[in-house]
Amino acid sequence: MDFKLLTGPMKKSVAVFCFLVLAFACREPFDPEVPEGSSSILVVEGYLDTEGLESEIRLSRTVLINADTTLAPESGARVTLFSEDGAAYPLTEVEPGLYGFSQNVPEDKEYRMEIELSNGELFESLPIIPILTPPIIDAGFLRDEEGVEVYITTQGNENADDFLWTYEETWIYRPRIRVPYIYDSKIKDVRDRTEAENISLCFKSEVSSDILLETSSRFQEQVVFRQTITEIPQGDERIQERYSILVYQKAIDSDAVKFWETLKRNTEDIGSIFSPLPSMISGNLKAVGNPQTPVVGQVSMGVVQQLRIYINLEDVTPWGYLDPEFNDCIVEQDSVLARFYDPTFVSGAVLPARPYIPPGGTVILGYFPTSRRCGDCTLYASPITPDFWEDD
Amino acid sequence: MNIFTRGILLILCLVSGLSYAQQTPNRISGFYPGVPFERFMEKIEEETTYRFFFKESDIKDLTVNLQANNDKLEDVLSQIFLPTDLKFSISKTGEVFISKGQKLTVDFPDSFFAQNEENQSEGMTSAQDEFVRNRRYVIGVPSGEGTTAKIRGQVLSLENSKPIQGAIVYDKITQAQTITNPEGRYELTVPKGNQTILIQNIGGYTEQRLVTIQGDGELNMSIGEGVFSLSEVVVRSGALTNISRPEMGVQSLSVQQMRKLPSVMGEVDILKGILTMPGVNTAGEASVGFNVRGGAADQNLILYDQNTLFNPSHLFGFFSSVNSDMVQGVELYKAGIPANLGGRLSSVLQVTPKLGRTDKIGGSGGIGPLTSRLSVEGPIGSKTTFIVGARMTYSDWLLDYLEDKADIGASRAFFADFNGTIQHQLNEKNILRFTGYYSEDEFQFDPDTVYSYSNQNFALSWTHYFNDQVEATFSAGQDGYDFQVQGEDNPLNSYRYNFDIRQRFVKAQFRQEKGDRHIFSYGIHSIWYDLNPGEIAPFGAESIVIPDDVAAEKALETSLFFGDEFEINEKLTVTGGLRYNLYGYFGPQTLPEYAPGQPNLPENIIGEKNYASGELAKSYHGPEFRFSGRYALTNWSSIKGGVNTMRQNIHLMSNSSVMTPTDTWKLSDPFIKPQRGIQYGLGYFHNLKNNSVEFSAEVYYRTMENLLDYRSGAKIVLNDRIEQDVLVTKGKAYGLELFLRKSTGKLNGSVAYTYSRSLMQTDPSEQKEQINRSEWYPSNFDQPHNANLVLNYELSRRINTTLAAKYSTGRPVTLPVAKFEYGGSERVYFGDRNSVRIPDYFRLDFSVNLEGNHKVKKTAHGSWSFGVYNVLGRDNPYSVYYIPEEGTLQGYKLSIFAEPIPFVTYNFRF
Q: Is the per-residue pLDDT at A25 higher than 60?
């Protein structure tokens, strides 16, 4: 997307201005008073897979800009997909505001989505034509002095020219100090942790919030070669052992490109001096009967292509991840002897980290302790290994 | 032609001296409360070179009851003689003949058109010599007729060859005297024979020249300007002209005035100076353009001499791209744009470049922390002068120094500009001038992407004086602008994006004085546009970026214009003008055809039409009317009114709030119609305290058609079919401008207040999108209240302090009113276009100019300028915006100069 090429780097212009005024502060938090109104607008999001892969439509409402939450799901709506030949495919609400769809529908038809809210308001989409997304040809990563760049390569065709990529990242998260022991108050002793009690191996996950768009016809033979999906800066937490990224590739039409570009511009690109004016956002939905009622959302259909890759720490060494937050983490020099286990470890705030075996001895007399924040990764991440996770 | 010449001769016979009266200060000022006419004449004879001839009985009981203020003698006499049957004639040499009943015919002096006058000019080197004072100059050729002869010439400064205004030239014996005009020219009638001519320059020595007068002739003199360097000569927008000139909405600014203004980084800046004027505003501190009376930044024509500057700024607006050392002055036409200028909707900013001095090689320059400049000027031979200047940044050292302190990465910024003018006087009637301008900017925010742009202009002009009444300037030249982005982030995706404009122009412009009361200006102006709206190309061997471009555009614009400044009577002067604009958009071009009555959208394309090279694809034409009039209420006050219409065929495509270098230009085509506007204005002008205080109040109302605004998500860059994203938009603007200026005294300065609105509306017929439901919405630069204060206090001749303050209403922005989750992040929903304002803007600047000593004999004259920009350190927001940070929305305001910024610059001239 050439616009990105031109304006993306402009973000740094702020920094240049700072330089020019001898690095004085340029940017300050600001909470203007904005007129109330325009709130509670229906928001529709979704890309329906036509080959039966589980996909969903999310209905929500806008909230005031200074509200504490953005969670305002719209429950109890009737969402139905109509094919041009009259076939109706109702969606079922699987979670508040989340309407699931997993049906194999013909791709050569034109579709229309109808949303009837619980208050009776009716919304309808413009005709939607499913687009068969071509597969991701290759995904990989590049290592350079700045860090790691994850890329994919794909090829567009005459039906699928514009692409939207989203991704989910998952990585192993380790505590600074691995604690294989646990104080069991039942047996009043320290023992090895079971798999379920593991606090040394966790997983963190993040869903992308970037909007990645590219038009394949800009390139020769419509090959989008090594499109950057995300960049992981040198020393980032994500590659401390093993990292995985699942890239979703969706082919969208040019109207959807405009919608996503507007969405992107309205948020991501607004930070620079050269930012364009924010634009009104609408999408391919209209209120039936009252076209002035605003509604936000772009519903697309097609085939979702996905590819997962892994990156191990060894692949990128030297990486140099070190979270300064835990630089004070040590295993204490003074051991906690057996008779003090209960008062010391029962609260869970102090963990038995390393056994104390006196020189020449063979019996554990006590444990060198550490604090929980240094040894328990479940404080920061999930100890449950995701289903998809593959070890080397 | 014969009739023409005869007409001129006739007019000369009847009211001879007219053309000189306009140049020499033979004007009448004073208060005559019922004084006898005889006393009045004595007074006039004392003050001017006029001599009266009359029959005493004719004027016996006549009294004079009037107040004159730099009026022509003819006007004054007409007034006095109105109730009587007295008639008067004024000869070319200043004899006033008063007769009863019938007008005397004053003979035309024989030698007036004769070309046998001897030209006595002093050589520069000998000027200082005693020889000059003691040499006897022989003037004119012996001719039998008359006992007096007329000598004329120019008085120049010995130090810098600049004309000396206000020097008194007089004859030692008869005490006949005259004062040099702003060009240093004088004309004096003296008895024939051996005479001593004395020249008294204010504050200087009296010089003498010994002459033998044989007949009419010329005597040019170079005299010392004196021991005291006078306080700067401030070229005022004309304390008198502001009430007497018929146009309204015209603001002038001299470089001297600009120098006093505090500036960012100590760089004297013409655009910042313009911003202290009423009705001129800017959307933000670092914005390239300025807005005049509710118009967009691209609606200002910025002329450097004859050349159009497409980007008047360096470094996105931090500095104006014109080196102030190379500028004589600037004039901004907000209304009352003369018929010979046009092509933009809002205003014309005429930057007049400096011409080289004629005495010796000299120069000036300045050294500041970020930029330095140097200019050199002087004569080449006796007929040619030159001036060249250069300016450059060396900011990279600062960037390196700051690298550790701020996260500026590999930012780099560089700019430079070069300009020069050579003027050659072929002979008395022909002057050739060549002007060239070149600027370059290059900056990068990261190591991979380099932005650069460049202005390239040159023009050759030939001024020919047909006679005293008619002069013409013929000019031809080219204006160029290039912009380029080079991205080398990844060898495979490396690209180069660029766009450029070339416009070649020819212009013939005549100025003709017709009689006493008309000044005609007429001519033709043609511009050939050659525009490359944008192309992207792979950069480097590995790149797989597909080249893409928007088809080049070609157009020819020709304007015929005629204007007349007509003095109907003493009280009422009008100027009228008509400019007829013809515009043709030419092939090669391939244009889509949209279904009639359908919006210009891709789905409505029904065909395609090819135009061969040079084939006319679309033409537009229409008249532009310029009219303004001045009615003098008293000698000190006048009211003016005006209406003018404008057309604009080249448009800046910008989707951001300010003019940015990435904005591209577009020509009018079958879908993008020329912008049109009409402005009505009314003003009251009043001068106080002997013209040292000027006050003006102006109101205006304007409407604009075919403005460009864009539908949501419009792409500007590399958009082949921009008409699919353009919304038909109308605009209107209105306002009140109050201006008070005190130009003399130790304490001087100006106060300006402007109330103005600038509104836009999507045409209700627009089917693509209607911004704010087709209601009127404020434009991006609608800032209703705007006040400027410039206070200058001269502590002594060497120390000058200036305080400048600026206040304006915050500009309107479009802010998010609601938020929602989408695409894995929090997103914002924006409210109506421009429905919220950023906080008001207020800034106080202070500067001190320290002049060096004023000894005449020293190699260089230096001065220091230091001060503080934004003394109060107010963090005036430039913009506000929201960005998602770790999943939540945070509002930010961006201030560009949030702290007091000290500056220091050393300026010198030699």
A: no
Number of DSSP helices (H) and strands (E) in chain B, helices first: 9, 58
Alpha carbon B873 to chain centroid distance? 32
ipTM of the complex: 0.79
Percent of chain B surpassing pLDDT 90 = 27
Does residue A82 sit in the same domain as residue A187? no
Whether the model pTM is above 0.90 = no
How is B171-218 classified by DSSP, letter by letter? Answer: ETTT--EEE--TTSEEEEEEESEEEEEEEE-TTSPEEEEEEEE-SSEE
Judgement on whether residues A185 and A296 belong to the same structural domain of the protein = no
Domain end call among A244, A276, A302: A302
Task: Mark whether A330 and A295 lie in a shared domain.
Answer: no
B100, B87 contact by CB (below 8 A) = yes
B401 Cβ partners below 8 Å, 6+ apart?
Answer: none
Contact B462, B421 (CB under 8 A): no
Q: Is the pLDDT of residue B360 over 80?
A: yes
Name the nearest CA neighbour of B479 among B652, B311, B291, B296.
Answer: B311
Distance CA A87, CA A82 (A): 6
User: Of the candidates B658, B712, B825, which has its C-beta nearest A281's C-beta?
Assistant: B712
Distance, in Å, from the CA atom of B190 to the CA atom of B196, rounded to the nearest integer, reads: 10
In a domain, A121, yes or no: yes
CB contact under 8 A, B717 and A3: yes
Question: Would you call B358 exposed, middle or buried from its count of C-beta atoms within 10 A (0-12, 13-18, 19+)?
Answer: buried
Give pLDDT tens digits for B309-327. 998 888 767 778 888 888 8
B576 Cβ contact list (under 8 Å, min separation 6)? B563, B564, B566, B626, B627
Task: Label residue B522 by pLDDT band (50, 70, 90).
Answer: very high
Query: Does residue A4 belong to any structural domain of this protein?
Result: yes
Q: Is B338 helix (H, G, I), strand (E, B) or coil?
A: coil
Least confident stretch, A72-86, B207-221, B419-433 = B207-221
Is the pLDDT at B4 greater than 60? The verdict is no
- Cross-chain residue pair A268–B883, CB shorter than 8 Å: yes
- Write down all domains in chain B, each with its CATH number in brackets: 1-114 (3.55.50.30), 250-416+428-909 (2.40.170.20)
Name the residue in chain B with its Cα closest to that of A280. Answer: B712
Cβ atoms within 10 Å, residue B608: 9
| CA-derived radius of gyration, chain B | 30
Contact between B466 and B516 under an 8 Å Cβ cutoff? The reply is: no
A253-262, B31-40, B130-139: which range is least confident on average? Answer: B130-139
Return the ∠ at Cα B556 (arms to B555 and B562), rounded to 5°. Answer: 145
A243 domain residue, yes or no? no
What residue numbers bound the domain in which A72 lies? 1-131+253-302
Give the pLDDT confidence score for residue B18 in this predicted structure: 33
Helix or strand (DSSP H, E) at A126:
none
- B8-28 mean pLDDT: 42
Express each pLDDT in B752-778 by its tens digit. 999 999 999 999 888 888 888 888 999
Residue A212, judged by CB atoms within 10 A of its CB (0-12, 13-18, 19+), counts as buried
What's at B804, amino acid-wise?
A
Contact B764, B774 (CB under 8 A): yes
**Cβ pair B820:A263 closer than 8 A:** no
Same domain, A370 and A266: no
User: How close is the nearest chain B Cα to the Cα of A291, in Å?
Assistant: 12
Mutate to test the interface with A, among B603, B760, B777, B827 (most CBs of A within 10 A): B827
Same domain, A195 and A330: yes
Whether B847 and B867 have beta carbons less than 8 Å apart is answered as: yes
As a whole number of angstroms, the distance between CA B709 and CA B772 comes to: 12
Number of domains in chain A: 2
Burial of B875 (0-12, 13-18, 19+ CB in 10 A): buried
